[in-house]
Structures are given as C-alpha cells and as structure tokens.
Amino acid sequence: MSRVEKFVVIYDIKDNKNRMRLARLLFEYGIRTQLSVFEVEVREKEYRRFMRLVERKIKSDGDKIYIYPLDEKSAKKIKRFGDWEGTIISDFFI
C-alpha cells in the first residue's frame, strides 16, 4: 500500500479562470478550508504528478502557490474555530 502525504496548499492566482482550474484540481485531492486554502492528501506514487499539475497553474507574474507538508502529529493538533463544520468533511482523510 502506498503511503499518503498530507499538505496545506495556499494560493493567490490572478486570473479567475485559472484560479478555478486550480481549485478544481485541488478538490480532487482534498478539501477547501478557506477560499484559497486546501488540505490535500497525495499518495506517494501520485506525488510527482500532483506537483507538476499544480506548478503548471502558474501562468503570470505574481501568481503564487505554496505547499506546506503536514505530518500526522501536526494534523492531529489542528484546531478549527468558527463555522468550519460545513467546510470540513470529517471522514475525508483516508
């Protein structure tokens, strides 16, 4: 069984169409926690493909995508306040 890595992806993309394409891609791998923030899971064997697909979404100067690794210990310490229940799918992470 291939290992699963967790990441937080934060982005600032100028073009609306391109920003929507990135969001659709990220929805395939995870959940949106804020307008430009996703928590994603990527299987080890999909890692390189995922990174290539995300990197290709940079189309113009000023576009930014940051991907932060999230280890299991840190993931368990996440605290969410406010109206997050409609955003988070509690059994999402496999």
Overview of this protein structure:
- With 94 residues, this protein is an alpha+beta fold.
- The protein has a single domain (4-71), classed as Alpha-Beta Plaits.
- 28% of the residues lie in helices and 30% in strands.
- It is built from 3 helices and 4 strands; from the N terminus they run E-H-E-E-H-E-H.
- The chain has helices spanning 16-27, 47-55, 72-76, and strands at residues 4-12, 30-34, 37-43, 64-70.
- It has a 4-stranded antiparallel beta sheet with strand order 2-3-1-4.
- The protein starts with a strand and ends in an 18-residue tail after the last helix.
- The model is unreliable at 88-94 (pLDDT under 50).
Instruction: Categorize the overall geometry.
Output: globular
Percentage of residues in DSSP E strands: 25-35%
Indicate how many domains the architecture comprises. 1
Largest sheet features: 4 strands, antiparallel
What is the typical, i.e. mean, pLDDT? Answer: 87
The N- to C-terminal Cα distance equals 12 Å
Rg value? 14 Å
Strand order within the widest sheet? 2-3-1-4
Which segments are poorly predicted (pLDDT under 50) over 5 or more consecutive residues?
A: 88-94
Structural class: alpha+beta
CATH fold field value: Alpha-Beta Plaits
- Please work out how many helical segments DSSP would assign: 3
